[in-house]
Amino acid sequence: MKQYDNQANRIRKEVLVRVARAFFSEELRAIDRIPIDMRPRSGESSRCCVYKDREVLKYRAMAALGFGVEDETDELTSLHEYYEKAQQRTCVKDIGLTVIDIACHACQKSRYVITDTCRGCLGRACQTNCPKDAIEIVNGRAVIDSGKCVDCGLCMKACPYNAVVRSPVPCEEICPVNAVSKDETGREIIDQEKCISCGQCTRACPFAAIQERSQMIDVLGRLKEDRPVVAMLAPSVIGQFPGNLEQIITALRRLGFDAVEEVATGADETARREAAEWKERIESGDAFMTTSCCPAYVEAVRKHIPEIGKFVSHTPSPMAISAGFVRETSPDAVTVFIGPCMAKRVEALQSSDVDYVLTFEELGAMLIAAGIDVQECEAAVIDEPAEAAGRGFAVSGGVTGAIQTQFADQENNLQPVGFDGLDKKALLQLKMAATRGCGGNFVEVMCCEGGCMSGPGVLSNPKTAARQLNALLKDS
Fold this sequence. Notes:
It is a single chain. The chain folds into 3 domains: 7-106 and 171-213, Alpha-Beta Plaits, CATH 3.30.70.20; 111-167, Alpha-Beta Plaits; 221-475, 3-Layer(aba) Sandwich (Fe-only Hydrogenase (Larger Subunit), Chain L, domain 3), CATH 3.40.950.10. Helix content is 39%, strand content 12%. The chain is globular, with a radius of gyration of 24 Å. It has helices at residues 7-25, 34-38, 50-64, 79-88, 125-129, 154-158, 170-174, 200-204, 216-223, 245-255, 263-283, 295-303, 318-329, 344-349, 360-370, 388-391, 398-406, 424-436, 462-475; strands spanning 98-99, 111-114, 135-138, 141-144, 164-167, 180-182, 188-190, 210-211, 229-233, 259-262, 289-290, 334-339, 356-359, 416-420, 442-446. The strands form 6 sheets. Strands 10-9-12-13 form a 4-stranded parallel β-sheet, with helices on both faces. It has 19 helices and 15 strands. By secondary structure, it is an alpha/beta fold. This is 4Fe-4S dicluster domain-containing protein. Residues 109-139, 140-169, 186-215 form the 4Fe-4S ferredoxin-type domain. It comes from Tichowtungia aerotolerans. GO terms for molecular function: 4 iron, 4 sulfur cluster binding; metal ion binding. Pfam families: Fe_hyd_lg_C, Fer4, Fer4_7.
């Protein structure tokens, strides 16, 4: 389960806000003071000392400027020098997640542990169920021999006192594709060849050691230029800010965006095209078709389960269709997708129609830094509001619902199946589906459990935001 509110995430958000404030203040040197101001010499430290805290904060600020630890060639390079480099950047190429190595706690390898609640009982079910004889009784207590243990977990299931617990490495545990592992020092590294950019590890790490390279400074820079900048707002924005959709649109215009488009409009078109594609495929003999709007799932198919690639829909995602609409009407515009998803940066890099991607977290930092309160903004008029079906793409089951709407007035044999969250088990099931089928003929796959509302770049509790979205859908 991702952590939506903890001290580590609050520090990351504060760094984003301070970097954005430095941009608006135009005081270049202010950015160098961020680590010092957040960890003054007389203040408390989160680690061994304020000086290590400051070093970690410097790397967080670098990530907020779009640089990873890997980009550092000289430790003496100051934050304002990175800021100047970010200002000179005309396009974004490096989008992979970065691990702040000195922030990584180098957690012990995932393992099973006997706790103090062990009674040393006569039954000794842990010992008798262990297939590798890895459990001994020492001084009346069970002890696991880590050299023999194969992490099967049978001892934990067998213990009647729940005295055996699993101690995981959170970032490794949540990664569905085993892209996160330890290096020779015990710290975590990311295998970019395996990574699908789902971003789940960024929220799972209790030390917030895994960061994304932000494009916030790039977008702020474009907003000051003469070219029109168009915000493409994902349907999952509902519930992310204290205000309604119309007020959020006004807030974006105050921030400097020339126009704001609902990506839900693109989702409406995706639903129309995907329904037609599904019908054509099934009539031509395909066993099933899977959705294609989740970029992390598409990356997972490309890198890890190519067997199912032929079943993935060819219909462009709502973001791609929305960007195409913008390009048709405003060819010279800078297009900025704003949503909860880090994997959208991968999709944007492969598209000529999407220039930048921001998360809601980054947009929130920009609004705070600019002094814009969404609740105080007047409601904008939406000339052509999206349909409820398109707005519903934000939650698991929403795509299926939109497809069903397309067939509301005609007979169909739609048999939906859903994968609400992409984990190791789901990947295996999808791999098997390529040869054995999946019990349905329309498969919706969302990498984040609950859908986009649970993306790594959200600001609000997903359940709370989903309730607000449902209320909007009733009125759409």
